[in-house]
Amino acid sequence: MSTSNALRELERLAVLDGLGVMNSRSERELDAMVQLAARVAGTKSAGISLVDDRRQLFKARHDIPFAETPRAMSFCAHAMTSAAMLIIPDARRDDRFADNALVTCEGGIRFYAGFPLMLETGHCVGALCVFDPAVRVGLDDQQVALLRNLADVVSDLLETSRFRQLGEIAARVLDTSSDAALCVNEEGLITFWSRAAETMFGYRAKQAIGESLDLILPKTLAARHHAGFARAIKGGAAKLVGSAVELTALRADGSEFPIELSLARWGQEDEGGFAALIRDISKRKALARERQQAQALLDAVVANLPAMLFVKDAETREYLLVNKAGERLIGRPAKDIIGRTDRQLFPEYGDGYEQRDTDALNSPVPRSFESKFVRDDGTPVFLRTKRVAFDGPDRPRQYVLGMSEDMTTVRKAEAELRQLAHFDTLTGLVNRPNFVDRLHRLVAARAPIALLGIDLDRFKAVNDQFGHLVGDEVLAQVGARLRDIAGPSDIVARSGGDEFAMVLVGREPKARAERIARTIVESLARPFNAGRAAAHLGASVGIVFGPDDAETIEDLRQCADLALYRAKSQGRGRICTYDMAMDQEARERQMLESELRVAIASDAIDLLYQPVMVARTGQISSVEALARWTLPGRGPVRPDIFIPVAEECGLIDALGERLLRRACQDALQWPEHIRVAVNLSPLQFHGGQLHETVQAVLDETGLPAHRLQLEVTEGLVIRDVERTFHELERLRALGIQILMDDFGVGYSSLSYFKRFKFDKVKIDKSFVDNVTTCRPSRSIIKAVVGLSEEMEMGVVAEGVETEEQMWALIDLGCTHLQGYLFSKPVPADLVAVMTGSSPGRQQGKQSNDPFNLFENEAGIEGLGDEHGSARQFGRR
Questions:
Q1: How far does Cα 809 stand from its chain's mean position?
Q2: pLDDT in tens, 644-661
């Protein structure tokens, strides 16, 4: 295709696109046209075919089973090549169409006639076609004339749609004409006013009829009109009659617009006048201007395409044209590009570019290539270029036309997506899927490796204390430290929120594992920058070796988890290497979890109660509920074993609720002044239902809220200070007492007491054990007592086992005491005996229970004897 033909085709496609009919709905008028065409031609099928660069679309069709075909199959594309009609009596005998699928299929086309759809711009956008599965000689003259007229009408309808919305098009087609029609009598008064005139001028018919024609004429034309009209009435020649002239008309709103006026004189014996057809040519004038600007518009389109467009001479390979987008992409003005070759412009890439031009010249179809070059300013640019050779005026395939799309942003986005797909966005380390993939390949190759599972200590506390932004920054610092520790061939990954992994590969991974693990623990124990403060973490490490310890990726990761679990269970900053005994421990833990589920469901967890004494009087003021579990055939399971299991496997809420309900039910057996204390797990605060659960249990059991005490540890408070204190305030609002348990062994902070006033503070047994021998312990207890007195809180000393400890604690001011000196944990019915609420105690009977209060070597009497109690606590 020559350059002029190519440009002409581009112009035609632009005009077709401007009509806006390729993707619009079918129109009834066009459907009527094809039905009429089929009847006129006497054929089975008829259609209005519009052809763009890819396809043939049947805008309207009669008895055609398909809506579109590829352009290569289109008969109408041939009919478009000239202004004349195209008639094919028998398509199977026509070399152009004999192999066409529309011909060779069952019931295919044999006879075809097509009439080009020519617009006023001179462009052909398609054809009105009729065809039949039977061979025909042709069409007679009358059929040809009618079909050609129908094609002209279709062209007008299509062109009208360029300037109207689809709804307006439908309304206009209902009118016989868009031109205004009016008549005036010999007096110059309007006698007829069409609907189109109403629309054009803005006057309704009843407003216009009977008025002078001056109604629609500007004052500047009124005098000439009167003179000419008078001459015409007297029988003189009217200059405008029989010709179409352009004038200016006046609308009802006072605006002027150009019209084309055609006049006809008419007359009868008793009357006469003039008939006028008036066409608003505002749009036609605009269209004429568009025609004049068509070439300039095409040039502007080429110049301003967002993609780079260029033309090269096929022989010299010099640039002949480049648009503005090309200037921007290359980074040079067009004057520095045109007349030069790729070798001159891009010395490093020129050979490759010219080879792609050669490939395009040797190809019958467009060729696409991707390339990269660096601008003079050092910016890398990625291009996707489609090249095609086309004929020139002097010789075939004279030019290379190219269109280049800037793919730099796309390639950058793809690189970022690859980064996101394989690396953790926060730390830059290998992410979990990438890590698993790499580990899988190492395992498949049976490469000797060491897998280190790394879990941060206290990260949640740091996150809660400093906020998530600081927490994220700390994680990034952890990633940086781990990268610095790892070797060049090692793999470092973030496998979870605060969990990391490292795979040691290469030479002697076993020899390196212990040293690397120790370095990790030491490095992560150093403070982290948390803004104005320092954050202290720590890490535990579990080590497993492959393929010695495990031969599959699943087993490797499971063994690493077991080793890490063992390390964390031993305390912070520990390192543990996997051994086979851990598998047995894991199985036992799984069995314990299963049995614990059954025990909770069957209410097999028992409660024992340890009394808390009032130091001043020796009376029992409350009891602490302690969970006990005995497995048949295995014996007792310690709480410090089964409680963590319940927390880890999600059973703690169910267990906690059952124990709370049991404690409240048991407390109803005791005197009303005896309170019952229930320990809470930190995890019970996570679900957000603790307040509702406690409220429901109190309502269900009927225990007054003031008789219930809930014990929390300092560890719970520091996990989420705001949420914890909010929940504690809601619980206290029910009337419940809140106690801080194990005070002094966690992360004690006086700010907690400022934020929330606890009812009692329980001093941990570790301070009580050496209260008689260790001055620092005594000083700490004394300080806690003093603080509590100032804040009106009670102080409970836990783990009292000797009289010496008891007297020392009383001297220091402890208000309440608890420990084996007074009683071991006992069943609920014995609490009733101890508190004097059982029938036997009320009769003054002496209990022989070995855990009975104050039955010890000192000969202190039972608590039921108030005088004995008073003597014991008053004797010094």
A1: 62
A2: 888 888 888 999 999 999
